[in-house]
Amino acid sequence: MLDSKEESWVYTIRFVEEMPSHNPVWTHWARFLLPLLQECVRLGLDRYFRAGQSISDIIISASEKHGLERYQPPPPRVTIRFDREKAQWFIAWSHHLLFSMLPERQMPVEAETAFEVLRSNLVDLWKETHPGELLPEPLAKRGPDEQGITS
User: What is the pLDDT of residues 7-28, one digit of tens each?
Assistant: First the structure.
């Protein structure tokens, strides 16, 4: 089972890597997601967040245990998804599984903007799930007026 947050990222990245070998249609999907997920791990976000997948969506949460559907009330999550009808990638914020209801917010992204939009959503996720705690170092902003602390 996926006991640790780090294990969840290893599993999710492996899932994305292997998908095109099952069906080449997924190659575009994997090419977009792999660099994004690998950058999160490279920066150490895997120590603070759990990654998983629901069909073709990649879901990131601050939950300690695997299986967001078991939590009541549903915890917040950030979802990376591809909308086939619009041929567009989105990063979405919600407290429920996206395929059952519309997300509370979502932003279209391209490969060049995806990480910063994801990072911004992960900051919000951390603030909601760890109120009053400092942001993890990988999320701390580096601008002159941005201390990386929650308000």
Answer: 999 999 999 998 877 777 788 8
